[in-house]
Amino acid sequence: MRFRGFTLIELTVVTGIVTLLMTLSVQVLRGARAQAQAAVCAGQVRQLALGLVSYQTENDVFPYGYQMPLAGLLSSDQYAGMAGAVDLPGRWWFDETQTVDHATGQGEKLLTCPSKRQDHPALASDLLCGNYGANLSLCRVEKYTSPYTDGFGVPLVSSREIQRPSETLLVVDSGYALICWWHAADEPPVSLPPAMLVVGGMIQHAAYVPGMAINAAKDLLQGQGVDARGGRHPHKTVNVGFCDGSVARKKADDLLVEKVADGGWNNGPLWQPSGDSITPQETAP
């Protein structure tokens, strides 16, 4: 029996089907990988939130988000591998919870979001950028060159000052290690300077919630665009850790802060723990 070969049309159809199946397989695998990374991220956010809650339980106060180093105790080279030249040396909230041992690098993986999408080398290697941010309204700072009035001072006490801990954000996917509701507001109370502004040796306003629609209009650092505008997890979701230690996956735009009828912002209880709508103190840039 004489064998009849495939015609050109048949080969073209088969090739097209194989190509389509390969494309679909790659997309399915890519989606599964993204979902797996988001699940790992959720687990890490849970551990970080529980670490902060445990610290609060033991000390009756949340840790400082950032503290200036005490003279003679910390040198800038101790933090050079972590923060690089753009950040001040000092202690961060994850140092207070003993999450990281900078000498050995132990714990740095926990602080690194597996879906981090900041592609500039200076940011890609920086633990403070493009991973997780603690809420400045809870984990305040001692000294911080910033227009925020609710971001410095004494950190809050959970049991007395946070009325709805299961609804108040403690740690979240973020462009920077410290974040507050101003970074999630469509109209912040004070106009934020450009992201490239460096004040007191510290990059200011590098924080954002990945995937929020308002990020399209922000002046971002080089390398932040894909993460900030395109989002980090499937469907532009973020992992949010709350003050009771729970974690939820939310649409990034669910964290948006907007002005309300009385001239304030609907920043509580998600971002601000003490009420449903809080008007900030008068601030100066």
Main sheet?
5 strands, mixed
Output the number of helix runs: 6
Strand content: 5-15%
Helix content class: 25-40%
Mean pLDDT, rounded to whole units? 80
Strands ordered across the widest β-sheet: 5-3-4-8-9
The end-to-end span amounts to 88 Å
Q: Structural class of the secondary structure composition? A: alpha+beta
Q: Write the element-wise H/E pattern from the N-terminal end onward.
A: HEHEHHEHEEEEHEE
Characterization of this structure:
- By secondary structure, the chain is an alpha+beta fold.
- The protein has six helices and nine strands; from the N terminus they run αβαβααβαββββαββ.
- Strands 5-3-4-8-9 form a five-stranded mixed sheet, covered by helices on one side. Strands 1-2 form a two-stranded antiparallel ribbon. A two-stranded antiparallel sheet has the order 6-7.
- The longest helix has 52 residues.
- It is elongated, with a radius of gyration of 22 Å.
- It starts with 7 loop residues before the first helix and ends in a 34-residue tail after the last strand.
Could you give the topology of this structure?
Blueprint: H1 8-59, E1 66-67, H2 80-83, E2 91-92, H3 93-96, H4 121-124, E3 132-135, H5 158-161, E4 169-173, E5 178-179, E6 198-199, E7 202-203, H6 225-230, E8 237-242, E9 247-251
Short synopsis of the structure:
With 285 residues, the protein is of the alpha+beta class. 26% of the residues lie in helices and 11% in strands.
Descriptive labels:
5-stranded mixed beta sheet; disordered C terminus; 6 helices; 285 residues; alpha+beta
